[in-house]
Design brief:
Elements lengths: L17 E8 L4 E2 L3 E3 L5 E9 L3 E15 L6 E15 L8 E3 L9 H11 L34 H9 L11
Parallel strand pairs: 6-7
Antiparallel strand pairs: 1-4, 2-3, 3-5, 4-5, 5-6
The structure holds zinc ion (2 copies).
């Protein structure tokens, strides 16, 4: 189930009033090339809702699980995350300010805030482990799994040349 809209009619127009709200739900299609939150992976949020003159201030912590792809070896792995939020929801959001739209009747929809907060924290270059050995650039084997047993290191630019080398006579300067 996707994150539910929060009924805030008890808070809107009552600056100083506040309460806690626990959310649990999913967000669809949230991810980058290497990091995503699975569509069925629940995000949990412990939020404090505070009524202020401008609207509703939402703060707290989001937690969930990322599915990541290692930037070196391309293995997929999961890792838990925690992200703090501190956002203002107002009836008429200022395009310039980082504010979210609040409809006092329909409620406070946390979906976009969660997407933004989690999205901005996604690692650019996730690694399955800090010392991941990555893939062999010659055979494509995963070095972590010992799939590549090693090669004579030949620069690919000279690979074609090296195939010709056995055909050449011995170096006349050798002796
Ligand atoms: Zn890796
Ligand atoms: Zn290899």
């Amino acid at each position: 189930m996707t994150l539910a809209t929060i009924d805030v009619r008890d808070l809107v127009g009552h600056p100083g009033a506040s309460r806690e709200e626990e959310l649990r739900g999913t967000v669809e299609g949230l991810g980058t090339e290497l990091v995503r939150v699975r569509d069925d992976a629940e995000i949990q949020a412990d939020l404090l809702l505070e009524s202020v003159v401008e609207g509703i201030l939402v703060s707290g912590r989001l937690s969930g699980t990322w599915t990541l792809r290692c930037a070196r070896c391309l293995a997929e792995f999961e890792r838990d995350f925690d992200v703090d939020v501190h956002e203002l929801f107002v009836e008429r959001p200022d395009e310039e300010a980082d504010e979210y739209a609040l409809d006092p009747e329909a409620g406070l929809d946390p979906d976009q805030m969660v997407r933004d907060a989690v999205g901005v924290e996604m690692p650019f270059s996730p690694l399955c482990r800090p010392d991941c050995l990555g893939l062999c650039e010659i055979c494509g084997g995963n070095r972590n799994l010992g799939e590549c047993t090693g090669h004579e290191r030949i620069d690919p630019r000279f690979a074609a040349l090296s195939e010709l080398l056995p055909l050449l006579p011995d170096d006349p300067d050798a002796d």
